[in-house]
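Exercise: predict the fold of this chain.
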Amino acid sequence: MIFLSAMPLRLASGGYAILLAAVFLWTCTVAVALAASEKTITARIVHTGERPIFLAAGDESGHVVGIGKRQGQAVFKDNSRAKFENVYTFDAWRGRKTIVWSNIKLTFTDGSWLFIKNTTVSLPDAKGRLIGKGKGSIIKGGGRFKGARGTFETIASKAQPSDQLPQGARLVKAKISYTLP
């Protein structure tokens, strides 16, 4: 309305309605074009790795910092797959809270890739299990993801050791929303 009231021209009766309709249609067209360019893909990621390197923080009992590396596989809703690699640092208070800063690379079977920076905060749920919620951003992409920009969101939990995963694993639900140039 401010835009319309600042216009120096005078419109005949009903002219404002026509002008408002034109502005509304233009806005809808732009919104549809922008929405159509963003893509969202979801995946289930299972990853595991060697025990990370821990260092006692020294300020309180149970507080540690560390670094580690994990690998695994992402399976997307369309059944496509990507190799998952993650190098991370963390700050943890055993059983209470963990903050993880990750550098993640997803390499797809066609050679395309995404490089993602992510921060995950894990807090105990009602049963005392640490559940991680992560947010990050796409830093760079290659192949069909060249020039990609977007977001990365996760919810992670721990899987107990099994025959297939003797060391246990992290189970992650991921959502990647991105645009291409």
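Check your answer against the key: The helical segments are 2-5, 15-37.
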